[in-house]
Description:
By secondary structure, this protein is an alpha+beta fold. Among the domains are: 82-160, Alpha-Beta Plaits, CATH 3.30.70; 162-221. It contains ten helices and five strands; from the N terminus they run H-H-H-E-H-E-E-H-E-H-H-E-H-H-H. A hairpin with a 2-residue loop joins strand 2 (112-119) and strand 3.
Amino acid sequence: MKRILLYLIILFIPFSCSKNSKYGVVGLVDSDSLSADFEEIDAEPSAQSASRGISTNDDNDSSDQLESQFTEPKEEPFVRKLERKINMTVRVEDVVQERNKLKRWEKRFDAYTEEEDYYVNCFYLTMRVPSEKLDAFMDSVIAGTTGKIVVKHESIKDLSSTYYDNLSRKKSMDAAMDRYRELMKQAKNVSEILEIQRQIDRIQEQADLAASRVKNIDNRVTYSTVSIEFRSYTDAQIEEEGFFSQIWNGLKAGWNGLISFVIILVHIWPLDLVLVVGGYFIIKRRMKKKNQEKQSK
């Protein structure tokens, strides 16, 4: 009888473990209860947050606001600042005609003359030409001239570093000016007002200097500089002339030199008069001295 009861107890032990034990031996654990327990564990932080009045959506919104508040302003796109200069010397037959022709091209390409000088058989012009039209302008000058190009030199200078340094300095000065103006509103006495005004004047001077440099570079980049010198063929023709032509030209040059010398003597006639009178008395004295020596002998 005891043996039968022992067998019955052994048979009922597994069933009692599966019903009453929550975390038993492996293979006897209810999977549904475990998943429910883990869901409860995962739900605890959110419940704790809810109990404290903290919302995850509010955290995301606040972080977005902070990021938008401290976002740095976008920098301006980098554009290289190049200054172009062209120097050219052209030998022509008629310098005035070539100068007038250049003036017509000046109007066509929206250029302007910065400097103009005229010498004997020579015209010198310094022009400012829009940079985007410079190549077309030079093509027209070269194709339209009837002379011979003796010298043509082009230079390109990169001013980007200087330009953006001064532009950044100007923006910094403007921001500092705004801060000092706010401080000016909060000033409590005359000494504070005078000190703030002194700083404002100093910053304004630096800002104006930086702005002037930026404007100057913009002008040098927007308008390229073209310097053209027109010379007549006179000097070149002398080298190509023959022997007798050179003799004839030499005689003419000597005659012109003699005339110039006479004109110079006329201009200094008082000195000429002194020399003539002085020479007369010196010669007369020597002749008198020679006559006395002859008589004494």
